[in-house]
Give the backbone structure.
Amino acid sequence: MRERETHVQPELLTKLDTIGLTHPEYISVCYALVSRDLLLLNVLNRKAQERLQEDVEGITNPTTQDEFSDGKGVYTPERELFHQEIIEDLLTPLAQPETPKFYILAGPPGAGKTTAIPEFIDSATTVVTDPTLIQKKLISDFDESDYAKVLATKDEAFDIAEKLIDKAFEKRLSITSESTLQNLPWATRSLKNSEKFDYRTEIIFIHKPLEQCFVDAIEKRKRPISLNYLFKSVQGYENLIYFDEFPDVTVTVVEKTSNHKQSIIYRTDRGELKDNVRFLEIKNHVDSLKNLRQAE
């Protein structure tokens, strides 16, 4: 545990501690993100990663996946039944849409993907495959700020989310997944499955200045995100151009500003994002952060 600053709210200090930063370093990160001081950001990220590595050395965290499965995706019959109950609970209230859609709500952490769901998606016909919602059903007293419980249930929650998507395809319900788009294989597989089941596919990418994303992810969420994860998420901007060229995939880019205004700067299925001047300006601005991520 790092030394605590007495003039700052304890809750904020606890969050910063879980991502390896002190409060003065947090302030420095915010400054460096605005000024694009890459040298300072690199030093701060290295420090944070080293501290986090020290914290986990020698500690083993058994997971619910370890406890209830063989490690290859096969769970005990009792646990599998529990999974099916969770899936049915999430699917039962939904109505079948006229034309099922597969949505990927994308963007860096803290951009406001979850809060954008009611604005862009029909919640009456769409299952939201959010692993956090599943974690809350796995553990009755689940708390996003309890890092041990987050780690213990993360892998199993992702396993259930995959089953939930398969069941939603089977029932022809619309599906929403959230992603930074940094994981190219996952997103590619998702889009190919959508095409296989004859779904209309839309990627809604939400951009917000990364310094604001970082602040909001720290101060407005129960579970903060690390500086390293923020840097990793930048790959999503490059991957979005790749997915924009997929046939029959509609891409919408929403730009949010620091004064809470937003505008749609791109929406089409014609693969023209690589020529969109405003998006390229945004991408060039964030690209400088890609090389700062550290191995974990």
